[in-house]
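Collaborator request, handled under Task 6.
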Amino acid sequence: MLDDRPYMRPEEPRFRAPSMQQPWSGWAILLTINVVVFLLQILIDPGSLDTRFEKSIVGQWLAFDSRNISPLLPIQLFTYQFLHGGVWHLLVNALGLFFIGRALEPAIGRREIIGLYLVSGVVGALFQLGFAAVFPAQFAVPVVGASAAVFGFMGVLARLFPHREVYLLLFFVLPIRLKLHWIFWGFFAIAIFSMLKLIRTEVGDQVAHAAHLGGLLFGAFYVAILVRNGGLMRFLPGMPRIRFVSGDPVKGSKATRRRNWRKTKVVDATEVAEGDFMSREVDPILDKISKQGIHSLTERERKILDKARSKM
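Structure tokens returned to the collaborator:
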């Protein structure tokens, strides 16, 4: 009901808890861990950032190395995701976590985005391991970094909201506007082209292209298969399944169920449980009204309020 919202009560409203009492976003938790771990690398294991990598603690115990499979592999599949090879490496992945993670988390939630990060990283490492078994000269290299997980984020965001447009700086100078649909296929093409180039030249490089491809494809798989089945949390006992609400228009129709994995698979607001619908969709709109006035609502937000009234 609307009258149980804080700003509908007669006493002085308090819209949110103090910032120190609010739970951290999932992407912020992941970004903080990556930064803290990198600082520990600098302080404790500086050799992991230069030519002494293979003899460093990170190189011997924590990085994922497809050249030398050790009994620590199950642990390394997770630890490598929070390690980096330098400031630039960390900065690029941090920007991905910040921009893509912020855009994705409202759609899937904090727990789910953390699970997605970890599983995308594992799948990316396994892709790298599989190609290293076939083409060891090109793909058998030590791997660190969050890039496979970031590619997983990109895959999910692009397949959930393929028609959402974003601005990119081409060559860090020229601004261009692209739909996420084309960004997904652009990343896919770059990964495939880079891998084919490595195979043809028979010379490896310092980029885990197969891990990038694995993360991206897992993101597409996540949207195609797991979205309608409760996400990754469904595999953990006692955890609530997630429900998705589409905020993007699908060309030629409303947000509807589709069998094709290339199309967005999202649940329309009418399919969402009443409690989830009120907390996920209605509460932010009421917050916006209290701060900016009802005139600030978009057409979509007005329709959501009408839908909420029909549920009351």
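The cover message to the collaborator said: "The beta strands are 64-65, 142-143, 165-170, 174-179. The chain has a mean pLDDT of 79. Please let us know whether this matches your experimental observations."
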